User: What shape does this take?
Amino acid sequence: MWLSLTGLVAVIILLIIISAFFSGAETAPTAAAEARMRQLVKRKGNRQAERVEALQTKREQLISTILIGNNAVNIMASALATSAAIALIGDSGVAIATLVMTFIIVLFAEVLPKSYALNHADKLSLRIALPVQIVVWILTPLTWLLNVLVIKLMRPDNLGDTSREEELRGLIDLHNQDTDAEGRETGAMLSSVLDLGEISVEEIMTHRASVTAINADDDPEDILRFVLKSPHTRHPVYAGKPENIVGVLHVKALLRAIEENSSRDISGLSITDIATEPYFVPETTQLFAQLQAFRKRREHFAIVIDEYGDLRGIVTLEDILEEIVGEIDDEHDEGLPEVKPQADGSYIVDGSVTLRDLNRILSLELPDEKAATLAGLIIYESRHIPAIGQEFRFHGLRFRIRNRAGNQLTSIRLWLSEPASETPPERNKKD
Assistant: This one.
């Protein structure tokens, strides 16, 4: 009897050791650094690292196999311990065996092995990679059968790209919390890249009211003087009316045409012949798609139109890049005079400033779903076209209309520290 009990105890101890192995095998490969394993494979040709990579690429199969083996071993150990306890002390041994085995399994077969595997993931995963692969290979048929049953019964949701994007955003947020200012700027750029798929061309384009187009019928000398004074290298060309865009004139193309004219007489130049064919894009196009289109077509400039084919504005490659890296100023840029800080802490803001630029410059969170510019937001919130001197409070800010041209709000004073109120007050004050 004692020999049989001794044998049972030995088997139970062996099963607990196997359970501890399964617990470590579940934790170590999944917690091992994928980048380090890749380097070991690439630089040293480490065979064990290759096995770890193979296990990491099939995480679901690995975890399913380990769970099957671990649960089978734990159940067998508990059953043998119960049999031994009953043989020693009778029916009351069931409760004692349950308590003792629960303690032993939790401590020695779960907590300790998993803690060790988590703290020594790389080293342990390299050591156990081969036996784990053998176990996975042996239990593959049973794992496949159970996975089929789970899929049939549970019908798990497949979130796909959405879940991966959320994971990336979460990692970027965690990175921003534990880094310096330079690291946070890098994180903001990465977040901006992910945002490209959610922002439309309409939100960043230069509105047609601010676009300086060239009349194809103007005198070529006047056009030359205009483009030489302009800070831009590309200009839309229209015929008849400004909405009728017939081409895009590049400064280099104009100068090249003048150079090729031996007489240097530009009065006979045809601007429409020099201009390239315009590239039209819908205002609803997402920035990521537009960026890809610019790369594919080798274009830097596009004419934005609405669903009716009417001109809305222009968008450039630089506009999209600025959504990622922030404002890009070269030697010809005039900066952002539209947002001018004042001595009292307020700002004089041009009504045409986009909300995305204003949010970026002043670190605000003004909504840009219903309006693209500050003037548009004020009109949307007030439900009318304000008069000069009227004041509004919304989104925690205070606004005063300084000037308007017709129905267009051209100048607005903005205070950042004004508390929001439920009903925006309106007052007639002069600046």
In short: The two ends are 103 Å apart (CA to CA). DSSP finds 15 helices and twelve strands in the chain.
